Automatic annotation (TrEMBL):
InterPro entries: EF_Hand_1_Ca_BS, EF_hand_dom, Lysozyme_dom_sf. It comes from Pseudomonas fluorescens. Residues 560-588 form the EF-hand domain. One of its GO terms (molecular function) is lysozyme activity. The keyword Cell inner membrane does not apply. This is EF-hand domain-containing protein. Keywords: Antimicrobial, Bacteriolytic enzyme.
Amino acid sequence: MSKLSTWLFGRQYTDRNSRFEVRDSPILPTPDTGPVRASLPPEPGADALQPLKNWSHPFKDTRNPLQQLTHLAKATAGYYPLGRNGLWHGGVHFDSGTAGGLDQSSVQCLADGEVVAFRIDTHSPTTRYFINTITVEKPFSRNFVLVRHRLQPPNIEGSPDTPPSLTFYSLYMHLQDWAVYQEDSAIARPAFWPEAPTRRVKESANDVRPGNLEQRGLNVRNKDSQGKVIDLLPRGAEVTVIGEGKYRKLENTLGPANLLNTDGSLRGYVSNSLLIPVAGDEYRIATVHDSFDIRAEPSFHSDIIGELPTGTHVTVSGEGQYRKLERINQYVHFDWLQGEQKPLAADRVVVLETPVAIKAGALIGHLGLYQDGSADQPEEKLHLEVFSGDDIDLFIEASRAWAQRLPDKDKTWLKLAQGTAVVTHQENATAAQLKILSAASPLSAADLLVPKSLLDGLPADRKIAVPATADRRACNWYRLDGLLHDADNTLLDGWVREEVGVTPWLSPWSWEGYDVIFDYSTPKHAMASFLSAVDHFSEAQRERYRPLADKDDQGPMKSRLYDIIDRNRDGKMTAEELQAVLHLPAHAQSISQLIIYKESEWFHQAQKWDALDELLGHSGSTPHLNWLAEKQRIEQLSWWGEVAEKVGLPSWGKAYHFHPVGLVGSFSAENDDNDLKWLKVPYGQLTFDVEGNDIEDESHPLYRYFSRVVHWPGGASGITIGRGYDLGQRPAPESDLRAAGVEEQLLTWLIGAKGL
């Protein structure tokens, strides 16, 4: 069972499909597949969702889209559309294998959209597995964020026609627990969490208590204007405040710390003769002295336990000459309080009644811990998916027609077709020599779309432009290393030729190379295929389960993958072959262009997993305890049934799955640094028109006033941001910066410079 455990403790599913450019007849739905509709009811709030304008890699990888795809080959498991175990997997993993080339400290949103649902457990649940004679609890994060997006081609200038659009969703699974955020307030929190009523004293608060210079924090005053100090809150202290203005009233404590009992109640009595009524039981203390005494008991002869400044407002109770203190009004400087965002709820699935807008690149969360049953230790992992419930065939057909009307500037991918000659580099070779050498050069074995941004970024010595003449077209030569491969899957280095007007440039809205594949197979089919491929079956079992395995192996999705992956044509898809394919840009791109209609991993139906009992050797008389534990984990991970209909996804669990990194790369490559749209100031950028400049030469004497860094212009000015935002001259700089989109830790650092 050792090989079986590799699958048993991973994620699972299977496939059967039919391509967009149909080669095989589609496999029709079975009675348990749910209804097949041409379109879904409108998503709640979908009409108000604006088409996305920006994309972002989940870890802000700035490498070209092809490198982003091949980097996924380094994942320890979880490839699209097959996991390391060779079974259906609707997304991609980022884990310890991918961490080497990425900053995986936080997860960012793939595209502009709106958060529609999430889950965050205080502590992730665990699964009890049996290892020999002992049991081990292994954690699995089921925390997720679901974001809805609207994809739409650009408008055509001068045309009133409305472009086609597609609603799709991005899923971020296995995120960090709420307890981790609670334990470390310095960890950045997603902006879609609402701000809690509780705030914290900033770590940069620098007030001190007389006689104790070691303790620093925030002064507490007796009035909201020109008040005197009556207490000191330590850095990080949690507070609740009310009111408006520079100073806000403390609500979570009844008085200064030195007057509080251990249960939080207030000690002390004050003379009735000093009380001036304000409203109800609230009074203002009035005395000819600067301060007044607080007595331990209602007697002039009792001990003095403290004093407060004249003008302090208090709430009292009782009768007689001395009244019992019930509350002392206290005020703190609001700018030195840090807002704290908290999830709307923990330990359950939350579907937002009002979705929260989110920008591409905005914080989604952080990697959580997930431990497979066969793993010795938990690891940080992200499962990333993109899927849609819309009719993809109709959208792609309309999108391709729309792309034909778009201007040439929107064609940002150069297609190097299979059979492109790759000429080995020779020093000082001319274009004419390269053309001659191309006749005997190795040929590429697969189509490859190359982003314009990659070609534009090549150094001058890796590009040769040949102008047109009367008898020949213009052409461009590009020296590309490690992008194309030959029939033996060997990467080729050398020069390739673009014949201007012949070698096609394509828009991402053409969906070049994309296939739509329909899969109606079950996990039972996939399990039979897998156990056969890893030689787990006896010969008798292999024959017995061959019909099940063939339904998976001969389905359109597996057929397409065999074309790409199975190099030795042995009819098996091994993890080693899959990884090798993902290291090749052209094959990684081909796989990323598969759109697979398949039941979601997160849609739970107990019967489809119970159907595996026989294959895995489980029965009432011979229970497979780890398989029973795994089925419980699968159910606990599922969320589709609680969310789908409320956000516009099909209730029956099937959706069109996209390769998430492939989709982002396809459309983010549209961005042209020279496009006039970049003149538009993005959200969160500070731009002013007074002090500062944009001189980037460090040797220039005015460089110190560079407007895009924090600087001091000199004279009466203080620390300044941009061209004239003087922190010291602004009444509420924290509110201004927060409204401008400046986030922690930068926010605290900037505010800490106020007054310098």
